[in-house]
């Protein structure tokens, strides 16, 4: 009985020593993780401050600069893990073999994530848009806030934050409304057949000249065209180019201005009356 007790005590002491020893290693590994993270963060701050002082950041777009910060963080975390695991008794060859197997498994199971990662580099390399640009991807539209490794962040005009996977930006059409310095404003409205279109055209051209001086905004190529004839009214369309940054202001402003012109000319918007007594 005493022999069995001593055997049990030996096993117990062995387990306790193993747990304490490995627990101490884990504690040291955690402390080492935080220590290395502290050093890496300091190095990262020094690196990016050096880039700022050397004015290299000004040569790089904000989009690329933020992407590099995100990539630097993930890369350094991966290197720290490779440094700490051998200390816990995991051979480096086993780590490489495990990461190789995991890479294959993850590559098959997480094709979307890898696709977003690769697409992030494609988006940056194409330079089709940058932070602050107004873009549309599919049915999502807004201002580019940030481009990171896996996602691109947009802020809508309703102040909503939307994260778009980078793979969607490379697989769908993307419209960059800020790419050109000018955008065309198009506004359609209806007038009756007895409208003096020549006089109306002169009035609208005078309106454009007045707005040029009032708002100090260049309004280019203003035209008034007859878009369509209907049995009850004529559809006219005003077209002109303005600076991209004031596009939305003028798009809504022109509607009110044209209404005032029509009121001055005593032109009423046509109303189509349906003769119900002739319906069968």
TrEMBL record:
It is found in: Cell membrane. Residues 72-111 form the Mechanosensitive ion channel transmembrane helices 2/3 domain. Keywords: Cell membrane, Membrane, Transmembrane, Transmembrane helix. Residues 113-178 form the Mechanosensitive ion channel MscS domain. Gene3D superfamilies: 1.10.287.1260, 2.30.30.60, 3.30.70.100. Residues 185-269 form the Mechanosensitive ion channel MscS C-terminal domain. Its main location: membrane. One of its GO terms (cellular component) is plasma membrane. It is a multi-pass membrane protein. The keyword Transmembrane helix applies. GO terms for molecular function: mechanosensitive monoatomic ion channel activity. The chain crosses the membrane at residues 12-36, 78-99, 105-124. InterPro entries: LSM_dom_sf, MS_channel_1st, MS_channel_C, MscS_archaea/bacteria_type, MscS_beta-dom_sf, MscS_channel_2nd, MscS_channel_C_sf, MscS_channel_TM-2. Pfam families: MS_channel_1st (PF21088), MS_channel_2nd (PF00924), MS_channel_3rd (PF21082). Belongs to the MscS (TC 1.A.23) family. This is Small conductance mechanosensitive channel. It comes from Borreliella lanei.
